Every structure is written in structure tokens, then in C-alpha cells.
Amino acid sequence: MVELCAALDEGIKLEHDSKLFYARNAKAAKNADVRALFETLAKEEKTHEESLKTLGKGKSCPLSLGKQKHKLSAPKIGDSFSSEELEEYSTILLVAMGFEQKAKGFYDALALATQNSDEAKTFRELAGFEQKHYDLLNSLYEEINYYRLET
Questions:
Q1: Domain of 9, in residue numbers
Q2: Which terminus in the chain has less CB density within 10 A, N or C?
């Protein structure tokens, strides 16, 4: 049986760390589209963090996470990026994908481990959001590396 409080604390920490990572990289981003992407991801992670805190305060499950609140879109990669920027963004994206994979795996494991079907639904929904983040970041990573090979 899952110790829900400990699991929620771990999930809150994962979301908080991801939020800080995206916010920090948004501030450092020179490209407005990249900055907007990281700002949006930071907002998404904040939403997830708040949802877990709500669950921890004894609110009923499943939480109504609804659709993703923020529109996620990847910037177009092209000549407006220097090779140094592409290298830097490539590294940042690898780290970000690691955050998303870790969170997805965590939520998938919780969904399987909990005996409560409503909690399981909430954790599967969170895992789905993290997968969408990962997919977007991965497509951008692939686009950057394809562009770098072509130029």
C-alpha cells in the first residue's frame, strides 16, 4: 500500500524543482519563443505542485486537473539561433526531459501502487501531462539536432 503523504511530498518536490528549473531557464533565454516555452512549462509545473498540495490537504480525489491550462508550443528553430545557443538549449532540453521522465515514472508507479481508484486516476492524469511535456521537449531537441546537422 502506498503511503500517500510521503508520495505527495515527493511529487510536490519533483514539481517544485521542475518549476524552478524552467523559471530559471526562462529568465536566461535570449530567444523570446524559448523564454515563452519555459515560462509556460514553469506555470504547468506550478499547477501540478498546487494540485498535489490540494490533494494532501484532504480534498477529494480525483482532483479535477482538467485540460492543460497553458498552450504549449515549441519555437521554430532557424538562423535566428547561434550555434552556441543551439548547443545550450540542447543541453537544457536533455535535463528537462530527464525531469519529465522522472515525474512520469513516479506518477505511473503511484497509479499502480495505490488501492484508491480516484487517486490512481489523478496520478495517471499527472503522468499524462508529464508525457506531453516530454514529447514537446523531445521534438524540439530532435529539431535542434537535425538543424545543427544540416548547417
A1: 4-64+74-150
A2: N
DSSP state of 115: S
Mean pLDDT along residues 94-119? 92
Classify residue 62 as left (phi > 0), alpha (psi -120 to 50) or beta. Answer: beta
Which of 133, 15, 149, 148 has the alpha carbon at shortest distance from 74? Answer: 133
pTM of the predicted protein model: 0.84
> What CATH number is attached to the domain comprising 79?
1.20.1260.10
Going by C-alpha positions, the residue among 44, 50, 2 that lies closest to residue 21 is 44
C-alpha cell, 43: 506555470
Tell me how far CA of residue 76 lies from CA of 22, 33, 39, in angstroms: 19, 8, 16
Is 130 a residue whose pLDDT tops 90?
A: yes
Q: How many domains does the chain have?
A: 1
Q: What is the DSSP string of 5-71?
A: HHHHHHHHHHHHHHHHHHHHHHHH-SSHHHHHHHHHHHHHHHHHHHHHHHHHTTPPSSP---S-SS-
Share of the chain above pLDDT 90, in %: 45
Mean pLDDT value across residues 5-33: 90
User: Can you tell me the distance from the alpha carbon of 61 to that of 123, in angstroms, rounded to the nearest whole number?
Assistant: 10
